[in-house]
Amino acid sequence: MDSTPSPSSSSAFDLVSRALGRYIPQGGAEAADARGDRAMHRQVPDSPEAGRQEQILGAVNLDRDLIITRCNLEAPVFAGLEAGAGRQFVDLLPPGDVPTVTRRLRQVVESGEAHVARIQRLRRGDGSELVVSMSILPSAAPEGGLTVSVIAMARRLHLYAAETAIGTSLDIGETAQSLAESLLAWGDVAAVDLDFAVWTGEGVSGRTQGRIRLRRAALVPDRVWPEGYMTPGDDLPGDASRLLAQAVLRDDAPQTIVIPDGEAVERVFGSPRVARALVPGDRSAGVACIPLVLDSAPPVVLGVAEVWRRADCPFRDSELFDLQELVARTAHHVDLARQHQREHTQVLALQRRLLPRTGGDTIEIASVYQPATPDSAGVGGDWVNSFPLPDGRTALVVGDVVGHGLGAAATMGQLSMEARALLSAGLAPDQVLEHLDETVTMLDDAESGLAAGYSALGSTCCIALYDPVSHHVTLSSAGHLPPILVSPGGRAGTLPIRPHPGLGAEFALREPFDVYTFGVPPGSVLAFYTDGLVEDPTLSIDDGMGRLADAVAGVHPWDALQQAARHIVSALAPVPQRDDVTLLLARMIGYRKGDTATWRLPARDDAPARARAQVSALLRQWRIRDDTRYTALLLVSELVTNAVRFATGPITVRLIRAGHGLLCEVGDTGNGRPRLSRPGLLDDGGRGLGIVHRLTTRWGVRWTDSGKVVWAEVGR
What we know:
Blueprint: H1 12-19, H2 48-53, E1 57-62, E2 68-72, H3 98-111, E3 115-123, E4 129-138, E5 146-152, H4 154-166, H5 172-183, E6 189-195, H6 196-199, E7 214-220, H7 238-248, E8 257-259, H8 262-269, H9 272-278, E9 285-294, E10 300-310, H10 317-354, E11 363-370, E12 380-388, E13 394-404, H11 406-424, H12 429-445, E14 460-467, E15 472-478, E16 484-486, E17 492-494, E18 516-519, E19 525-529, H13 541-553, H14 561-572, E20 581-588, E21 596-601, H15 607-621, H16 626-646, E22 651-658, E23 661-668, H17 688-695, E24 698-703, E25 708-715
Antiparallel strand pairs: 1-2, 1-5, 3-4, 4-5, 6-7, 6-10, 8-9, 9-10, 11-20, 12-13, 13-14, 14-15, 15-18, 16-17, 16-19, 19-20, 21-22, 22-23, 23-25, 24-25
Helix pairs in contact: 4-5, 4-10, 5-10, 10-11, 11-12, 13-14, 15-16, 16-17
């Protein structure tokens, strides 16, 4: 009856060494010597049967000081590991792994409990690495050391590790770079060339007609390349793109091709220009071209991966199988990165479109939008907008939509456009927020909301209107952080705004939106922002807003506002950050005192005549042309007449000299909305607004707490 050797009669090292014979083909190795220190093996032919019989098991014996006493790593797969007796075992490890592995080794020495199947990298003498499955076994007395067994599963482990690494990023450049770095294990140079549509995130299809434009997305190793060679970011010449496309799409079926040596490379490429673009310097090299194929019907080729190596090391069939398997496993990661790139580009384009373009004569605008880093799942829903209203005021809007991606972007665009339309129609900030609140609630109930996996409940928004004549800002906030106001003297602080639940709150939590009015003398700076700029895990939100207030207070009147905004963002929110960052700075200028005039008139029959007299005198003082003066007098007369007929209380007339036009405003206490209509032939009324409509470039109505203001603009 056979008996298993006990630890006292045979060490773990001897047991592992004896087991090596079961992994060696017949006649494939010399018998190990009595100590098991050395074993000689012949190279195994490249066949599936032989590949399964390659020796992959080795053993290293250590003393209690972790010094190698014996080793059996003579198989070809372990070539380059310098594991001679007397060397430190940690010399076989990458420097970053030394503390962890040393701790594991000492734990086994002290506890006597084995540690098995640890995936570990070992460093060869030339600096390359070998991936193994490592087990640490305690040795029996009297040795008292350790036996480390290693199973070299480099190819399979490399395929697994490569696929895992390639799938960790949604950036298409990083994905291609990870793929190229993984392919370098099979050659001296690896490159990934992607279809231009894939690189830009555009849609791809199975049609191959015309899809011959390739861009180099990744190249390893990183070194100085010969002149004319394509490096990352370069578009391959048309001939090179066409050649690669034809090579991997022979008979309209994606397939791998191998060009074994330099002579064949020159014969296939033909053109010296193509050779300079594709051959990495050594003309004696061979190349394997593997298509990145998206598994679909019909299959879609996303690009081509190229692996170059010396002609004296031809590609074996098993290596080509591994290359094709790796590329096939990771092609979908490239496509996921393409889809993310497309979504990211679309959302970012929407974000950029919503950013304010410029200010005007009465206000200076600067804005910065800094998207979150890729690990936060894409661009978010932060947005700012600034636009002049037809009545001469300026709207400043900032919002933060919950979530990231296309769902947040669609909601952001809808809320932004709705806010602009309502403000342009003359609604007050609180009235606009009421409509936005209803919109968010409606979207959450619709199929595009919860049923689609996205909800905008809890989004925030702040709307401010700047009046350049009165130098006041009127604002309302729906759960947004309060703006920061810096006076002309440099004193900064947050505006005292009562917190609000935000947009789409439950009915029981809904509160009316408060309206606040603040004085903003010329030279004041108002800062709107989103929480990504002031949130810091190490600080409270109040401290974050305090830091922002100090930074904005440091902006001098002669500083360029856009440059100052960028400096503030870079100082408070350095890249990378976990949330989008948005900042809007508005420097108030206003109208000069001599460019505006206001009169208050009683609502009596003589009000139109008194208004005409006041306006006529002022227009002469401003030296306005006679035709413009006549048009302005007629407008004021019609608007004041309508106010007397249909409203009560005092009438306010305001005239503003703005840019190349005159803005006439008439306010009253009525709540009826003037409407333009086509009067009948015998109707006495209804013609005043028709006259206003024909004489002006634009006109409209805005609502106030006490009534309304009808405004009209004429060119001068």
